[in-house]
């Protein structure tokens, strides 16, 4: 396994002379730690597969370099990069037995038989494939076939990284839960660098130590699930992660106060030097706004509905033209369909042109 550095890396399918705004992958410089479990998360079309294919060598980037353990491997082919890849759909040999499929990547590289047997047995045990080792792959279900693909991706211990591109797409929802936790356990046991592409936040947050969020061809934040929840670096991260996502509200911000619709909301930090002319917004997660009885000094919102999620109730409200989700404490009712909004100042963030602004204490 290897530490992977991307240095000013960018890709355009339209060639290097295309305007940078149109690049599928906008310039990125970042490091993927040796042995890390990463998820590459973002909506369809944001550039995840492009970045993964640039790392694996399927695509040669229009600009920049990729280093594996400090060595520039940008011109090397996929094979020479020593990468294992698992795709959305099973890639296996139907005519071979399951054990032979798992052994194939090792046999191909001339690994001694005793070591192949040991490794295949270990991977089969970890993926619950032991009972199938002598069965022909062709007779198995799509789920079992994809498990074999995962096994083939994980069987080599000498790879620089294992790349997964939405590997649970074809898996039955019930088994998806099991496999997701299994992959995390496998990461702990096998000590491999893993990069897992998905558009599903639950999949990303359960699998990864570090989640890399992409939006419109850009890596907008890389952090632990808690960091992405507590301190989104970009309004997109706030909105995309969490259910419901973060409330983003246009505001005028001066010092320790935000003004929304003529009302003042206290902030936990001070913002004295916001960039002139920037679009200023505050961001607050629904978990840190409560609906309460309307009172002087509180913003008043119209309640559209209340979603009872068992552990927590969220009020879906309307504030002028904007929608806002807030926590509805136990016992909260509204006689006239309105509510006051009580914000927790320490959890309100300020954004200038969608980027987080660090306030002063
Ligand atoms: N071979 C290609 N030629 C031209 N444009 C492409 C090609 N492959 C992808 N794109 C474009 O590049 C952008 C990023 O696509 P990419 O497949 O990397 O995104 P993604 O986040 O992986 O999305 P998905 O989950 O839908 O695959 C999109 O606008 C897409 O249309």
Automatic annotation (TrEMBL):
Protein name (database record): ATP-binding protein of sugar ABC transporter
Role: Involved in beta-(1-->2)glucan export. Transmembrane domains (TMD) form a pore in the inner membrane and the ATP-binding domain (NBD) is responsible for energy generation.
GO cellular component: ATP-binding cassette (ABC) transporter complex, substrate-binding subunit-containing
InterPro entries attached to this UniProt entry: AAA+_ATPase (IPR003593), ABC_transporter-like_ATP-bd (IPR003439), ABC_transpr_FbpC (IPR015853), ABC_transpr_MalK/UgpC-like (IPR047641), Mo/tungstate-bd_C_term_dom (IPR008995), NA-bd_OB-fold (IPR012340), OB_MalK-like (IPR040582), P-loop_NTPase (IPR027417)
Gene Ontology MF terms: ABC-type ferric iron transporter activity; ATP binding; ATP hydrolysis activity
Family per similarity comment: Belongs to the ABC transporter superfamily.
Keywords from the named record: ATP-binding, Cell membrane, Membrane, Nucleotide-binding, Transport
Subcellular location: Cell inner membrane
Source taxonomy: Bacteria, Pseudomonadati, Pseudomonadota, Alphaproteobacteria, Hyphomicrobiales
Keyword field contains Flavoprotein: no
Domain ABC transporter: 4-241
């Amino acid at each position: 396994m290897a530490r992977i550095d991307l240095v000013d890396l960018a890709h355009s399918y339209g060639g290097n002379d295309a305007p940078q705004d149109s690049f599928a992958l906008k310039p990125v410089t970042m490091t993927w730690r040796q042995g890390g479990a990463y998820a590459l998360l973002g909506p369809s079309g944001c550039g995840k597969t492009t970045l993964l294919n640039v790392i694996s060598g399927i695509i040669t980037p229009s600009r920049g370099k990729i280093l594996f353990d400090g060595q520039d491997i940008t011109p090397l082919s996929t094979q020479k990069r020593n990468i294992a890849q698992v795709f959305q759909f099973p890639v296996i040999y139907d005519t071979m037995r399951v054990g032979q499929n798992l052994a194939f990547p090792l046999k191909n590289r001339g690994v001694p038989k005793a070591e192949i047997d040991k490794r295949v047995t270990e991977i089969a045990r970890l993926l619950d494939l032991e009972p199938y080792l002598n069965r022909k792959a062709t007779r198995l279900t799509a789920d079992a076939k994809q498990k074999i693909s995962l096994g083939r991706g994980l069987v080599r211990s000498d790879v620089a990284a294992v790349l997964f591109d939405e590997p649970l797409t074809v898996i039955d929802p019930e088994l998806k839960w099991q496999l997701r936790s299994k992959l995390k356990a496998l990461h702990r046991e096998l000590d491999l660098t893993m990069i897992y592409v998905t558009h599903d936040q639950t999949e990303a947050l359960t699998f990864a130590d570090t989640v890399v969020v992409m939006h419109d061809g850009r890596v907008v934040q890389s952090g632990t699930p808690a960091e992405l929840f507590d301190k989104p670096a970009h309004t997109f991260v706030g909105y995309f992660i969490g259910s419901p996502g973060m409330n983003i509200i246009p505001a005028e911000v001066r010092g320790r106060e935000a003004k929304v619709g003529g009302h003042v909301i206290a902030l936990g930090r001070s913002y004295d030097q916001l960039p002139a002319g920037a679009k200023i917004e505050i961001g607050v997660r629904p978990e840190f706004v409560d609906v309460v009885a309307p009172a002087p000094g509180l913003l008043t919102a119209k309640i559209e509905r209340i979603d009872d999620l068992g552990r927590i109730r969220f009020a879906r409200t309307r504030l002028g033209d904007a929608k806002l989700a807030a926590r509805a404490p136990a016992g909260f009712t509204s006689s006239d369909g309105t509510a006051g909004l009580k914000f927790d100042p320490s959890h309100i963030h300020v954004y200038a042109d969608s980027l987080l602004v660090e306030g002063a204490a």
